[in-house]
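Summary of Year 1 activities. Much of the first year was spent building the evaluation harness for sequence design. The harness presents a backbone, in tokenized form, and records the residue chosen at every position. We chose the following record to illustrate the format because it has been used consistently in internal testing since the harness was completed.
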């Protein structure tokens, strides 16, 4: 018995945000070793947005958009890609890719708290346990002496957390916002608007715009993979899931992304992987499990 088409699309979309996005930490880290971070993001999202519009026209999808939808796409593009991703890439200059992915795994915690503040959604007991574990795990992660002593690492860690907050709020925003019905078109407008804002930011900061012909082969490959898979495939899948399944389920990518990022960072970039980081990862991901799991969980006190 074959699976329904929608079920197959959902499975493929989750694979994209789980596995492909897990590898983008490594690819971004490789890119920022040679070229400026906001320039990296500008190239990535402008190129991806243009390619998405070409694909949409080839598939005969309408690119029409209302004024309200354009404003919402611009807001989402800023929260997701300008701040949530652009600043994140900048922070990778000071923080290992695997470490950054672990920090990003706190997204479900932020989503839960924002849904409580915005929608008044009640926080369950198991979610409270998850929040506590998340705080403990984050403390174990950022309290490592070898990280704190590195120049710029504290600033990088703090900025990554603000990026996670921006991405989390954007996830809640997009799940309710009036956007183009076609997910490919919606993604394209978000990326084009973000690309323009990132270009302005890059020029304002005085970053050097280096010709792709001067990039090393590893950076060229990294940007190519980020544009095609990390942006077009995975981000379109992400937008599709936000409108198809619950926001909490979409945020479960935080389970898998850090594991893939840590392994790739260790295997390819020789990033350090010590016992405290492994313990912090286990505590953090256990907290994420408690937050996102749908299983019933009750604390029973035994007494008189």
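For this record, the design step produced the sequence shown next.
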């Amino acid at each position: 018995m074959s699976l329904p088409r929608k079920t197959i699309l959902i499975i493929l979309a989750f694979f994209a945000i789980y596995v492909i996005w897990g590898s983008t930490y490594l690819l971004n880290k490789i890119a920022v070793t040679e070229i400026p971070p906001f320039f990296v993001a500008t190239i990535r999202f402008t190129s991806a947005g243009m390619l998405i519009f070409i694909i949409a026209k080839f598939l005969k999808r309408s690119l029409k958009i209302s004024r309200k939808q354009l404003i919402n796409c611009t807001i989402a593009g800023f929260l997701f890609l300008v701040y949530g991703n652009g600043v994140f890439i900048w922070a990778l200059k000071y923080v290992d890719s695997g470490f950054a992915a672990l920090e990003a795994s706190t997204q479900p915690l932020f989503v839960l708290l924002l849904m409580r503040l915005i929608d008044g959604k009640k926080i369950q007991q198991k979610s409270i346990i998850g929040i506590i574990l998340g705080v403990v795990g984050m403390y174990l992660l950022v309290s490592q002496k070898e990280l704190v002593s590195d120049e710029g690492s504290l600033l990088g860690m703090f900025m990554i957390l603000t990026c996670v907050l921006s991405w989390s709020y954007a996830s809640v925003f997009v799940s309710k916002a009036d956007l183009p019905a076609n997910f490919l078109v919606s993604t394209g407008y978000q990326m084009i608007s973000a690309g323009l804002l990132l270009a302005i930011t890059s020029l304002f900061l005085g970053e050097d715009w280096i010709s792709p012909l001067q990039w090393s082969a590893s950076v060229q490959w990294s940007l190519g993979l980020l544009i095609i898979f990390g942006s077009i495939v995975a981000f379109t899948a992400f937008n599709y899931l936000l409108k198809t399944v619950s926001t909490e389920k979409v945020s479960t990518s935080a389970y898998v992304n850090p594991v893939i990022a840590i392994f790739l960072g260790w295997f390819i970039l020789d990033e350090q992987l010590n016992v405290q980081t492994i313990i912090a990862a286990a505590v953090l991901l256990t907290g994420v499990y408690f937050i996102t799991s749908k299983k019933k969980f009750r604390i029973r006190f035994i007494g008189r």
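The chain has one domain: 5-292. Quantitative recovery figures across the full test set are reported in Table 2.
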